[in-house]
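Re-running the complex after MR caught last week's input typo. The corrected sequence lines follow. Everything else is unchanged.
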Amino acid sequence: MIDSPLVTAERYGRVIKSTVETFVAECFTNAAAPPLGELLVVEDGTPIIAIVADISTESRDGTRPLGLHGGPEDDLQHVLDANPHIPALLRTCFTGVVAGYWEDHHLRQYLPSAPPPVQARVRRATAAECAGLIASFDFLRLLLGVAPHADDAIAAALRRLAPPEPERRPFLVRAGKALTVLLAEDPPRLHALLRRLQG
Amino acid sequence: MTYENTNGNAPLRDGTDGRMTAERTVSLWSAHEGHEHDSIGLVVSGSLTEGLEIRLDDRVLPSDVIVGTYVTIDAGTRRFFGMIKDIKLCTTIAQLAHTPPGPDEDFLREVYQGTAVFGMLQVQPMLQINDVDGEGRAPEPVKSVPPHFSRVRLSTQEEIERIFGTEDGRHFVIGTPLDMEVKVRLDYKRFIERSNGVFGKSGTGKTFLTRLLLLNTIQKSNSQKEQKDKAVCLVFDMHNEYGWKGTSEDEHREVPGLKRILGSDVAVYTLDSESSKLRNSYPDGEIVIGLDQIEPDDMKLLQETMGLSDNAVDACEALYEKFQEEWFRNALELQITEKGEEDPTSRQLNIHAASVRNLKRALQKFKRGKDFIVDKAPEDVLASLLKTLENGRSVVIEFGRYGSDLDAYMLVANILTRRIHDRWREKTEKALGTGGEHPIHLIIVIEEAHKFLDPAVAGHTIFGQIAREMRKYNVTLLVIDQRPSAIDPEVMSQFGTRITCLLDNERDIEAVLSGVSGKSGLRDVLARLDSKQQALILGHAVPMPIVVRPETYDQTTYARFRESLRSSQPAKSDPSDDSDLFIN
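Corrected-run output:
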């Protein structure tokens, strides 16, 4: 469980595109993107809790995609040293899948009535905020239908959310049980997801 | 700014900490306190006739539940009681049956248990209480079902005790349920009100059960104040098990019989005084049967075993019409000439030579070896028997060596019962007509009952008649049998209470449960009884069917009976030494 007070307010970026179910945010710093499965909070507006479901790096200018530099013998560092302008041409974005929102200090595990505002800041969720989420597993339903890499993101999020041993295994079993109910109609997917949890 | 969840420590949706430990499941069974935590599942579907389907809670393993035990279902102000009759394994993911978790996939197994795979119970509702805290607290036969999602839990000892009656003048203990130390009691008055049956394969403990029933009945009868509530038993003891002593089947040791325990409340009569002497049994009298007491109906009853042809049986009727009580002797005196012609008597009665031969041969063979048959029975034998019964003393009739002769057993039982029934009918009719006392309630105990109550002969035996009459003349039956399917179904339907040990024949099981509501579940319970020391009791004398471990018949039981005998009637108790009755 993420607990360090130093990163309580680590802000990753701002929302640049959003729907009620998902949003895309651009990172302040390309190198400091949230990992897959991380829990995020969107500030500035109705506070929303979300999970990182995708991260991408691409050229800032959509009309001018970046080509390759250097030869097969040049490693990455060599290329960056030789082309210091490259990082400035890139931007890193991440996709957040909405898992709930706060209303009067109660965490609701369903979709908010409005998408997160564009330009709202996105930061890492605190341990206390995560605790509210795992009180029940309702948010899993929101994740399962939405993102392309939902399963990996879910597994990653649950592994992150799990408390340290000896609570870890019972927590993952409970999460697995919640998933079993949701994915009863899709046994292969359920099986694959459960294996990721266990791993 | 951080956003904390103010209901952050709310419990999980399923109300537990999620851990499935061995302690938790065991505690479900030892607590028996009726709290919510003892819930084992929820009602999810079903019907009154087919039974209710209960979805087991995730933390309850199907292997922790036993068929035949009782559950309580709480439904608001109503409470239902039922018996678990089946346990099923179910799954929401069909594929798991084909590709179950592997041996090293403990995580998957744990995840699936209770979610994708779970147990279901089938429960037969039997009683309901309509107003748990109010006036309607007595259990009644069930007429409705609990709503969906009603909580189900194991019945507590207190509930079972309340249902099966507290210790009072009206109930006697018969045993304990399978998994509790509560007492299960039969209602004495309801037990003696109707004819009853004790059934089970051979070796399952019918004799022990019957001894217990008789001991309790006689004892309870003694404690009744009103004459109309008392009862005496007349036992036709085929294998010398009930009188002075009997044997314990598995250990081949002796156990005391009714007379040994109840002393002068029981009289023993014997058909075979030699055998009684050898067994150190001290009979109060001897039974002899006169040829003049045998009737053609007895011949019909024994037709098959005696090898009588139909014509020969008709001949008996004809002879009886002419010679009345002397018919038997006259039958033996019928002659066939050397030319194979009938004598005048035969001709007059239209009896052909072949029939004469058949008849004479059968009757002679029948009479041979039966030392208890005399030409004319002395009056006092029957009179003594009747007087003993009328005075409130139970009687055991020992058959000695004749117990293995089915003819002898059936004949004696039929004849004596006929006479006794006649007397009881007379007294009852007199009481109804001109006033006077009704005769004391009489329970006639017969073994191998299917021989007397087979559909072919039930019409010709006094027993069939008694069963059908119900309690008209204050006579009922207690039948002991291992082939209930051979008993006439109409007679079987008259049995109020049925106590059965293990039966494994489908037809026998069907016969015992005929006319019982909710029998589909009971069938499985019956087929799964242990071969010893377990019996299913159902019918008039219990509020709902129950599987019991009968009380053991040993020093403590014996001591209890002697004690209560001494305390209720100190003058009558047998002064003989009773400390060594159960020595091996």
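None of the earlier attempt is carried over here. Confidence is low (pLDDT under 50) at residues 1-8 of chain A. Chain A touches chain B through 35 residues (CB under 8 Å).
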